[in-house]
Amino acid sequence: MLRLTATGYAMMTSFITFLIVFGGFIQSITLFILLRTPDLKSKSLTPYLINVVVANSVMILGSFPSTLASSIANRWIFNDLVCRLVGFFGGIAAIAMIATMTCITIKIYSTLTIQFGNNKLSFAANKDRTHLKIIAGIWIYSVLSMLPPTAGWTRMIIESADTNCAPDWMAESTAELVYILILTCMAYIIPVSIAVVYIWRINNALSAHVKLMAQMLSAQRQIKDFRNITKMAALAIVAFTITWLPYCLYVLICAFGEGEKIFNAETSVIACLGAKSSILYNPCVYAFVNPRFRASFMTLLKIKRPPIPVNAVDVIVDTSTNRRRMCNKSTVLQTRPAVDNQATAIELLVPSFLNPKNNAVKLINTERSVCNKSVNDDAKSG
């Protein structure tokens, strides 16, 4: 068994502690936001996002504590049953996570194709409970994938410098090699490939629909929401692919008998810990891409945000340039010629992602002395 130095085990202990503390914290925060935010709780994608959190939590609770204890002791301190359970929980959590993200991309595409016909784009809550069947299928798929080494049909061994358990990647028979290749396809290659294909199809569908709906502001907002959620799924898939790629290569190289020649204790541990760190990125991706989630997260942590104006925003036609612009210069709308020498104002209600009940644009022709003064000042300065 390859072993680390005392310093190596100390560094591993610190990293696993960080994953448990910080990973557990962000999973809890994410779950709380998804369950308590009305606008997020009602969306049909939310059950899938919750399932990703559940999968990450299974990884944290089922795999990390034994790795932490063993890294502190500088050796595996548990029996064979615990080893099998640790490998089982770690495996099903990873498979369930990527399978769920793949289902999210399929769900986005199916929603697009169904709703493009009536020009109503939204992720309304599921009423037929199909998502429950899909999520149950994801976990059955994950359990079946990890059943052979757990049941003893193949071997579950200690790896990662004697601190973690996983299926024996050193295939000693044709049956073991076949299982490793099938598991690699089921847990990595197939779900990632399907997700990439559907993300490509989503982008094509959105691009085609943008051309048809270019003149409708409400449709543009909805399409932007779809692009945001697609970007979230794509970033999550990319993050999973990157964090698990070194470990996947490690598995395949070991399966064909070259692992001992290429990998030492340090590289095998880095590949394993890199894969385990995948639990951290999903909430970060949500916060980075999804404005609803980000706003709820900042509110929960009592971080001050710029106030959202409750009044309508005035948009004027600048007769000197024949362009419409915002009086406060905070927003730019589509260019069109001016009708006359008077400024025409448009009252733009709060966008749908901030206030879904006011998803409309109300046209009001009025004279605004402030806006006129702004236009005249700009004309004089020009």
UniProtKB/TrEMBL annotation:
Top-level taxon of the source organism: Eukaryota
* Location of this chain's protein in the cell: Membrane
Q: How does it sit in the membrane?
A: Multi-pass membrane protein
Question: Which SUPFAM superfamilies does the protein's record reference?
Answer: Family A G protein-coupled receptor-like
Q: What is its main location?
A: membrane
Q: Which UniProt keywords apply?
A: G-protein coupled receptor, Membrane, Receptor, Transducer, Transmembrane, Transmembrane helix
Per the database record, which ranges form the G-protein coupled receptors family 1 profile domain? 26-286
- What does the record give under GO molecular function? G protein-coupled receptor activity
Give GO cellular component annotations, separated by semicolons: membrane
Query: One short Pfam family name for this protein?
Result: 7tm_1
The protein's matches in PANTHER family, at most eight in alphabetical order, are given as: OPSIN
* InterPro entries for this protein: GPCR_opsins (IPR050125), GPCR_Rhodpsn (IPR000276), GPCR_Rhodpsn_7TM (IPR017452)
The coding gene here is LOC116293992
**Name recorded for this polypeptide:** Blue-sensitive opsin-like
Q: Which residues cross the membrane?
A: 12-35, 47-65, 85-109, 130-147, 177-200, 232-253
